[in-house]
UniProtKB/TrEMBL annotation, chain A:
<dbReference type="InterPro" id="IPR008995">
    <property type="entry name" value="Mo/tungstate-bd_C_term_dom"/>
</dbReference>
<dbReference type="InterPro" id="IPR027417">
    <property type="entry name" value="P-loop_NTPase"/>
</dbReference>
<dbReference type="GO" id="GO:0015847">
    <property type="term" value="P:putrescine transport"/>
</dbReference>
<dbReference type="Pfam" id="PF00005">
    <property type="entry name" value="ABC_tran"/>
</dbReference>
<dbReference type="InterPro" id="IPR003439">
    <property type="entry name" value="ABC_transporter-like_ATP-bd"/>
</dbReference>
<keyword id="KW-0547">Nucleotide-binding</keyword>
<keyword id="KW-0067">ATP-binding</keyword>
<protein>
    <submittedName>
        <fullName>ABC transporter ATP-binding protein</fullName>
    </submittedName>
</protein>
<dbReference type="Pfam" id="PF08402">
    <property type="entry name" value="TOBE_2"/>
</dbReference>
UniProtKB/TrEMBL annotation, chain B:
<feature type="domain" description="ABC transmembrane type-1">
    <location>
        <begin position="58"/>
        <end position="262"/>
    </location>
</feature>
<feature type="transmembrane region" description="Helical">
    <location>
        <begin position="244"/>
        <end position="268"/>
    </location>
</feature>
<keyword id="KW-1133">Transmembrane helix</keyword>
<feature type="transmembrane region" description="Helical">
    <location>
        <begin position="57"/>
        <end position="77"/>
    </location>
</feature>
<keyword id="KW-0813">Transport</keyword>
<protein>
    <submittedName>
        <fullName>ABC transporter permease</fullName>
    </submittedName>
</protein>
<keyword id="KW-0812">Transmembrane</keyword>
<dbReference type="InterPro" id="IPR000515">
    <property type="entry name" value="MetI-like"/>
</dbReference>
<keyword id="KW-1003">Cell membrane</keyword>
């Protein structure tokens, strides 16, 4: 039951994806997928392209049919309900605004499709456009809008029909960085205010951490870990999650000795202590978050020759020279100008901050 | 700017060719229709439009062309939708099925239809052996047969423009409509159809222009009994030796064709500007 990791037992599932499987032309994209979301939760599906996150989103929306498994929404099976009767709105990556309609007509589309009385449509559209601050653009053709404005219209169009669930497929990827951050904050508070349950699909870990209560990290059709952003970052369950969420120092090594809960691991940069119960001789990957490393000796200490010291403003990143498959990275607060390339430094960190994963064979 | 003007010279051979081979004779033809004994006159047109028989031929021609366009559209649209969703081998089969018949001469196709529609032809044989009718139905030499035959011959000219537009359409649009609660019927009439209208307009313009001026198909399927404008033109030139009448009818056909082209491009521009 990997998918339910991090769910407190008292949280009743609002959306319940049970044992869903999907194959395209004989290639299995996902199998036996379990995924639960509570009412009012903002959840992200995070993973590299091709991991099956968009497929899962499309299956929930009813745009792609599942080969196996069930989808329950508020306790009701919707697996065989067609998309147009699920009342699940989707905001697409390209926004998919109707090019032959104006902004207001786009927003009104879902209401017209549901045969909402004509007199009720205009006030609802106006209210929805107000919500995304696009009321002044009501009569414009959508082609005349900027990316950020198109996204707002897409959100208004999706929310005006009062969906039971909102799905967003890479909603920010077409926006430039600055606008993206503004829109993330805006959209998050908008969804919070309405108590909307929403699922974001994204490959951008910063975006996922910024907008969601919980993140499901996906890799080749599996959910590797489903947890809060802070838990994902502090306690990644696999080296994939560690690499995908945030940066880290990572070294390949081999367990050379065990002493109770503490293992001694030999790496290219020397001996490292970590908590864990892998047997002697196990090939492992050791990871440490860069901000937990200090340039002074600690419980674990390695000698590093600086390959680069990058001043990033609030912090300075120290990159150590390493084997190409390893990475030595330490972040120290503030601007450090006394450290330069070629200098020998010490990386130190505590045993409890050392992450260890069995290396894939 | 000057470079661009020089590049324009490249079109000169083509334009000259068209001017000498196509435009000039057409102009002479047009001139002939306004002349009686070397004098400018509208008499030929007055005669044409006051002649009841000629008018019946004009209306039949327009009616047959319009109905052919409608029949072709009704058959072509679903075909174009199927094609726009097909991939790989199926798409190739569809495209070959559309393009290959164009390489078969129109005479052959029209003759094939006359075999099917004949009194003791394939269609009547099937209908009788199934017991649907007792005696053969007269199908050949009827307007219905002509419209079916013409729609068949011109079908690719309707399918291909619609297919091209549908193929380019963002597949997310009908999906977005579905997620907003639109039934398949609502999606079709509010998303797919309006967005494919430029293709529909182009296809209708092609088929109508072809059908209004077709000669071989009506000659083989309905024969002399029910004339169309182009058959009347041919008869004026070849049998009646009435060049003025022939020129007049040709000019009327030309005006119809030009109005269809201009009208449809205006419509397509308008539709295009909206999306």
């Amino acid at each position: 039951m990997q998918g339910s990791a991090g769910t407190e037992p008292d949280k009743r599932a609002y959306l319940d994806v049970v044992g869903v499987g999907k194959a395209f032309k004989g290639t299995t994209v996902m199998s036996d997928m379990d995924f639960r979301v509570a009412r009012g939760e903002l959840v992200s599906l995070l993973g590299p392209s091709g991991c099956g996150k968009t497929t899962l989103l499309r299956i929930i929306a009813g745009l792609t049919s599942a080969d196996a498994g069930d989808i329950l929404l508020d306790g009701r099976a919707i697996t065989r309900v067609p998309a147009h009767r699920r009342n699940i709105s989707v905001v697409f990556q390209s926004y998919a605004l109707f090019p032959h309609l104006t902004v207001a007509e786009n927003v009104a589309f879902g209401l017209r499709a549901r045969s909402v009385p004509k007199g009720d449509i205009a006030p609802k559209v106006s209210e929805a456009l107000q919500l995304v601050r696009m009321r002044d653009f009501a009569d414009r053709p959508v082609a005349a809008l900027s990316g950020g404005q198109q996204q707002r219209v897409a959100v208004a169009r999706a929310l005006v029909v009062d969906p039971v669930l909102l799905l967003l497929d890479e909603p920010f990827s077409a926006l430039d960085r600055k606008l993206r951050e503004t829109m993330q904050v805006e959209l998050k508070s908008l969804l919070r205010d309405r108590g909307m349950t929403a699922i974001f699909v994204t490959h951008d870990q910063e975006e996922a951490m910024g907008v969601s209560d919980r993140i499901a990290v996906m890799n080749s059709g599996q959910i590797e870990q489903f947890a809060t952003p802070s838990e994902l970052y502090a306690r990644p369950r696999s080296s994939f999650v560690m690499d995908f969420v945030g940066l880290s120092t990572r070294m390949r090594g081999r367990v050379s000795k065990t002493d109770g809960p503490v293992m001694q691991i030999d790496t290219a940069n020397g001996m490292v202590l970590a908590q864990g119960d892998y047997g002697v001789g196990t090939e492992v990957t050791v990871g440490v978050r860069p901000e937990l490393i200090t340039p002074v000796a600690g419980e674990n200490t390695i000698k590093v020759t600086l390959a680069d010291a990058m001043v990033l403003g609030a912090k300075t990143q120290l990159h150590g020279a390493s084997h190409p498959e390893d990475r030595l990275l330490c972040e120290v607060p503030g601007i450090q100008t006394n450290l330069t390339r070629g200098q020998d430094v010490t990386f130190g960190w505590s045993v409890k901050d050392t992450l260890v994963y069995e290396a894939p064979r | 700017m000057r470079r661009l003007e020089h590049i324009g010279l490249l079109a000169l051979p083509g334009l000259t060719f068209l001017a000498v081979i196509f435009a000039l004779p057409l102009f002479m033809l047009l001139l002939k229709s306004f002349q009686i004994d070397g004098q400018f006159s509208l008499e030929e047109y007055r005669l044409f439009f006051t002649d009841e028989y000629n008018m019946s031929v004009l209306w039949r021609t327009l009616r047959v062309a319009a109905l052919t366009t409608i029949v072709a559209l009704l058959i072509a649209y679903p075909t174009a939708i199927a094609m726009s969703r097909a991939n790989g081998i199926w798409l190739s089969i569809f495209l070959v099925a559309m393009v290959l018949p164009m390489s078969v001469g129109v005479v052959v196709k029209a003759f094939a239809w006359s075999i099917i529609f004949r009194t003791r032809g394939v269609l009547n044989d099937i209908l009788m052996s199934l017991g649907i009718v007792d005696t053969p139905i007269r199908m050949l030499f009827t307007e219905t047969a002509l419209i079916i035959g013409a729609a068949n011959v011109f079908l690719p000219f309707m399918v291909l423009p619609i297919y091209a537009v549908l193929r380019q359409m963002d597949t997310r649009l009908p999906e977005a409509a579905a997620s907003l609660g639109a039934t398949p019927v609502f999606r079709f009439f509010n998303v797919t159809l309006p967005l494919s209208l430029p293709g529909v307009v182009a296809g209708c313009a092609f088929v109508f222009s072809l059908a209004v001026s077709m000669y071989v198909i009506p000659s083989l399927i309905v024969g002399e009994r029910q004339q169309t404008l182009s058959m009347l033109t041919a008869r004026s030139f070849l049998y009646l030796r009435n060049e003025a009448l022939g020129a007049t009818i040709s000019s009327i056909l030309l005006i119809i064709a030009i109005s269809v082209v201009l009208g449809s491009s205006w419509l397509a521009n308008r539709l295009g500007a909206r999306s």
